[in-house]
């Protein structure tokens, strides 16, 4: 059955309207002027469009440049087929830092349109989490050298800190910061956070930062507060004194003492019950002068009425308990996992980032593609969760969305493009 023309027009409209907002024309071109056959922004635009269309390799991106509707190619400035080798050469030569700018520009534009308003929470929340992709190459700079055991081949692990605005319905990736080979998530937290705050100075995008137990430390909490933000950190055995006290206060509380609870039905036979327990008795505990609230979230999974899983997780926060209602505290904890369940899961499944990174032999090029992939993810998640109307449309499976974008890209007509408002491909700095 042919794809609905109105849907295709809206998808083409996303590319025509939103790609200029990224400011790809402002990315510094590392190539010598002599011998350039393509403008850099045209090449980058094709890569983003190819990612949106579900392409899993540079070869498929080249094929798309030929299959793309002629009128859409003209609108995007792609005059003819672009060789995959041309794309690879320029991607490997780019400075990955240059690609953070377009990500920030796209997010700032969405913020101006009020497309990133908090959903269910009174303020913006950004969740940070590390992500790793294994490559059959390493450079000891972008990719850390690792061994999988005696006799195994060395591999390179490309690591970055993903910053996801989990308070927004769309949960866009607002930044992705490379973790140098010489350090780890805990050691890079402060620099990553400072760079994130600097990138969005001047706009009130988020007030609270969440991270799992991998970054839970008194120093990192102090850094968050110094920057005028609040924190929610996961709490595990890496902070044994803090955890023991939290367990002493909250571990023995039963369901009747829960301050909030939710039940999620998973299919016909399974359900998950989550309960929140909260205490302010650890205010300023030990060296943690900024600590205000400690939380325990209990999860029980039932299958046909029988409990099959039980888990408790603990958290510490610098926010006073009165700043949120009990249901909002529970929502805040659950939203933290949006960085993993929404952003990382989509990158790993729909985009197949771990299995198909596009460039494997050059970690720098792989990181550049990863940043462009996050740009594509943002275009799609904003369309899926904000532009679309109705819960059913907003729950469209990602694979369907990729297929629909591909169909729209190869079949766009002059009539569809004519109905769109004229928009420039480039914006002045």
Structure description:
The protein has 15 helices and 10 strands. The chain has helices at residues 5-18, 40-52, 58-67, 70-76, 84-93, 100-112, 185-199, 218-226, 240-250, 326-336, 338-349, 363-387, 391-394, 398-411, 414-418, and strands at 125-135, 143-147, 154-165, 173-178, 208-211, 230-235, 260-266, 270-279, 293-303, 306-317. Helix 1 crosses helix 14 (398-411), helix 3 (58-67) crosses helix 5 (84-93) and helix 6 runs parallel beside helix 12 (363-387). The model is unreliable at 425-429 (pLDDT under 50).
Which helices and strands occur, and which strands form pairs?
Layout: H1 5-18, H2 40-52, H3 58-67, H4 70-76, H5 84-93, H6 100-112, E1 125-135, E2 143-147, E3 154-165, E4 173-178, H7 185-199, E5 208-211, H8 218-226, E6 230-235, H9 240-250, E7 260-266, E8 270-279, E9 293-303, E10 306-317, H10 326-336, H11 338-349, H12 363-387, H13 391-394, H14 398-411, H15 414-418
Parallel strand pairs: 1-5, 5-6
Antiparallel strand pairs: 1-3, 2-3, 3-4, 6-10, 7-8, 8-9, 9-10
Helix pairs in contact: 1-14, 2-3, 2-12, 3-5, 5-12, 6-12
Assembly annotation: single chain
Helix percent band: 40-55%
Could you spell the SSE succession in H and E letters? Answer: HHHHHHEEEEHEHEHEEEEHHHHHH
How much of the residues is beta strand, in percent?
15-25%
Structural class: alpha+beta
Shape: globular
Secondary structure tally: strands: 10
């Amino acid at each position: 059955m042919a794809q609905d023309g109105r849907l295709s027009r809206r998808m083409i409209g996303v590319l025509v309207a939103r790609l200029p907002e990224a400011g790809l024309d402002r990315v510094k071109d590392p190539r010598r002027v002599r011998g350039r056959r393509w403008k850099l922004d045209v090449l980058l635009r094709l890569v983003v469009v190819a990612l949106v269309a579900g392409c899993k390799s540079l070869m498929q991106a080249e094929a798309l440049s030929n299959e793309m509707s002629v009128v859409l190619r003209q609108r995007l400035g792609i005059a003819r087929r672009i060789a995959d080798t041309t794309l690879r050469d320029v991607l490997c030569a780019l400075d990955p830092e240059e690609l953070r700018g377009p990500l920030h520009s796209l997010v700032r534009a969405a913020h101006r349109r009020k497309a990133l308003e908090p959903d269910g929470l009174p303020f913006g929340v950004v969740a940070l989490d590390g992500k790793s992709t294994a490559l059959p190459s390493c450079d000891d700079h972008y990719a850390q050298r690792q061994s999988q055991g005696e006799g195994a081949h060395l591999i390179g692990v490309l690591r970055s800190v993903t910053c996801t605005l989990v308070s927004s319905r769309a949960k866009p990736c607002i930044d992705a910061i490379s973790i140098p080979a010489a350090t780890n998530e805990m050691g890079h937290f402060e620099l990553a956070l400072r760079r994130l705050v600097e990138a969005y100075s001047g706009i009130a995008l988020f007030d609270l930062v969440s991270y799992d137990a991998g970054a839970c430390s008194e120093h990192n909490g102090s850094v968050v507060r110094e920057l005028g933000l609040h924190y929610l950190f996961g709490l595990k055995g890496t902070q044994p004194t803090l955890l023991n006290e939290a367990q002493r206060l909250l571990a023995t509380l039963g369901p009747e003492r829960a301050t909030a609870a939710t039940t999620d039905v998973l299919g016909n036979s399974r359900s998950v019950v989550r309960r929140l327990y909260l205490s302010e008795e650890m205010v300023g505990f030990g060296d943690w002068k900024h600590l205000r609230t400690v939380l325990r979230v209990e999860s029980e999974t039932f299958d046909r009425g029988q409990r099959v899983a039980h888990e408790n997780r603990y958290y510490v926060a610098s926010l006073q308990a009165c700043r949120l209602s009990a249901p909002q505290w529970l929502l805040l904890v659950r939203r933290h996992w949006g960085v993993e369940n929404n952003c990382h899961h989509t990158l790993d499944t729909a985009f197949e980032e771990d299995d198909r990174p596009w460039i494997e032999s050059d970690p720098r090029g792989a990181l550049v593609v990863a940043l462009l992939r996050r740009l594509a993810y943002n275009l799609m998640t904003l369309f899926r969760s904000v532009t679309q109307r109705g819960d059913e449309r907003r729950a469209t499976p990602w694979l369907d969305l990729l297929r629909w974008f591909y169909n729209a890209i190869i079949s766009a007509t002059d009539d569809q493009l004519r109905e769109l408002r004229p928009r420039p491909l480039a914006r002045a700095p």
